[in-house]
Amino acid sequence: MSNNETLKRLVILGAAESGVGAAILGKAKGWNVFVSDGGKIKPQFKEALEQNGIAYEEGGHSMDRVLAADSIVKSPGIPEKTDVMKKVRAAGIEVCSEIEFGYRYKGDSRIIAITGSNGKSTTTMLTYTLLKDAGYDVALTGNIGYSFARQIAERPCEWYVIEVSSFQLDDIHSFRPDVAILLNITPDHLDRYEYKFENYIASKFRITQYQKSTDHFIVNQDDKVIQEYLATHSIHATTIFFTMSNNIPENDGGFIDDGMMHIRYNGEYFDMSIHDLTIKGKHNQYNSMAAGISARIAGIRKEKLRETFTRFKGLAHRLEYVATIRGVDFINDSKATNVNSVWFALESMDKPTILILGGQDKGNDYTEILALVRQKVKAIICLGVDNKPIHDAFAHVVDTIIDTTSAHEAVHAAYSYAENGDVVLLAPGCASFDRFNNFEDRGEQFKEAVRNL
What we know:
Helices cover 34% and strands 22% of the residues. By secondary structure, it is α/β, with parallel strands linked by helices. The chain folds into three domains: 9-96, NAD(P)-binding Rossmann-like Domain (Rossmann fold), CATH 3.40.50.720; 106-309, Mur-like, catalytic domain (UDP-N-acetylmuramoyl-L-alanine:D-glutamate ligase, 3-Layer(aba) Sandwich), CATH 3.40.1190.10; 320-451, Protein-Tyrosine Phosphatase, Chain A (Alpha-Beta Complex). A nine-stranded mixed beta sheet has the order 7-8-6-9-10-11-12-13-14, with helices on one face. A six-stranded mixed beta sheet has the order 15-16-20-17-18-19, sandwiched between helices. A hairpin with a 2-residue loop joins strand 13 (260-265) and strand 14 (268-273). It is found in: Cytoplasm. It is an enzyme of class 6 (ligase). It comes from Nemorincola caseinilytica. Cell wall formation. Catalyzes the addition of glutamate to the nucleotide precursor UDP-N-acetylmuramoyl-L-alanine (UMA).
């Protein structure tokens, strides 16, 4: 797909941020673009399509138009098992993701791409902030901010920091970040991967598939799943590890030792106390090391790194401090939608905790957090429609397990059990769709309930 392939037919499946972004870029690059969405298109996306003179349909797919495409950009939310995708695959039409389509028009710009099961958004935002504070011409794209393709179409930059999901990586054919970061891998979205964890693992590692030795792959040395994969697969990029273990990388890398974060790159050292990091918790130390290494690769001076690390506040709904009421701290970690996220949240708590847990269960295995719950949790407040898995998992560990039906009710129940010096932690470990629109809605309702105490 090059610029001279004028008026070739490009079909975009899905009209949310990534699909509309690909459509706008395709139109700008001379494609004959048609957008097809099986559901209803949100008003802001419909308006963007109309402003750019892009043909679209909603509420179904006109398969004759879809199958007439020379190339198809598939939005990440569309599973392969849908009828439209089965017909597209059977027709043998090229399918790519929006990040792949954008990559083909990025020019000489450079890319830092971040993936992982947990911590992607915080690491992406921190990396972006490190570059922006240093005066770089940089954009925040992918699952956070504008889509990559839309950014290229409307305001191209010298640097792109992209949060990348496994779904976006599934349909790449040449996407090659200059710097790729893989934070961790825990079971998630297995319904999209034939319920095979190895398929999900392979999808995450696609972030480095097209990298060359001149590129960098920053990866968590402490993640057993990652280490097992690396033991049997070769990586072409220059691999740089970050770790909290005693197995400190001999060359470039990041590590925590005696309360200090150390980053070593190209023979130069950067270090600072973990207590000076404004984002707290062990998982955020991992995120900070990964972001810091990428920033050093990008050429950012150590003094600028230190300035940003000491003022970066993190993101809403990610271990977000809400308020202290009569000595009780309230923490919003609504983004903790799987058990591993709950583990990281609990691990960072240093006070007796009342845990608000539950939602749309994805077949959670709670054994991973049993030890931390036994050690730190005074009571569990359930916030799902079906809370039986939580009762079954923790009845022998926690004396008090209460069912509630709303964020308001959950906050009041938690507050009634809390004492001066305790913390109330919303870390649901589940999707939010049984009672809320999304994790943001859940977090906002939690914060509103806290403010109304």
